[in-house]
UniProtKB/TrEMBL annotation:
GO terms for molecular function: guanyl-nucleotide exchange factor activity; molecular adaptor activity. Pfam families: Robl_LC7 (PF03259). Coiled coil: none annotated. One of its GO terms (biological process) is positive regulation of TOR signaling. This is Roadblock/LAMTOR2 domain-containing protein. Residues 16-105 form the Roadblock/LAMTOR2 domain. InterPro entries: LAMTOR2-like, Roadblock/LAMTOR2_dom. SMART domains: Robl_LC7. SUPFAM superfamilies: Roadblock/LC7 domain. It comes from candidate division WOR_3 bacterium SM23_42.
């Protein structure tokens, strides 16, 4: 089980800008960024006819199932997935091992263009998410406000108080 992803405001806008550039550069219909737990982080493009919560949950489940398939054939994981439909397609890519990028596109663009542009965006997003993970780790490191000497003295006083 992975930890939830916390995104800082400036990083959120950086991520949104990258997704918007990808949307425009590929002529995709919709782009969604989802955590591995199935929670939608953000999206761009037309989501008006889509249940984004269900899409996010199913995308995460799809990636989890595909990861199990990968392990059955000796792979650690597949970093990209492609689903081709009659009218619409989904290209899915893993970002920084913890985030799923889903690009929904139709005949207005090609898989090749989506693949190339997505690869560039994934590289950019991986840098952003590595910075986010570093910030979160720094924030969650235990802060030592009380030194060891104070702790020892406080414990001695408590022992004297309770006669232990």
């Amino acid at each position: 089980m992975h930890d939830r992803i916390n995104i800082f405001e400036e990083d959120f806008w950086s991520i949104n800008d990258a997704l918007t550039r990808l949307l425009q550069g590929t002529h995709a219909k919709t782009i969604l960024l989802i955590d591995r737990e199935g929670q939608l982080i953000t999206s761009t493009g037309d989501t008006s006819k889509m249940d984004t919560s269900s899409f996010a949950t199913l995308s995460a489940a799809d990636f989890a199932a595909t990861s199990q398939l990968a392990s059955l054939i000796g792979e650690k994981e597949f970093s990209t997935l492609f689903h081709q439909g009659e009218k619409e397609n989904i290209y899915v890519s893993l970002v920084a091992g913890r985030v799923i990028l889903a690009v929904i596109f139709d005949k207005r663009t090609t898989l090749g263009l989506v693949r190339v542009k997505t690869k560039n965006t994934v590289s950019e997003l991986e840098n952003t998410f590595q910075e986010i993970f570093s910030k979160v780790e720094k924030e969650t490191e235990p802060k030592k406000d009380i030194d060891d000497e104070f702790t020892r003295m406080a414990e001695e006083e408590i022992d004297k108080l309770f006669g232990t």
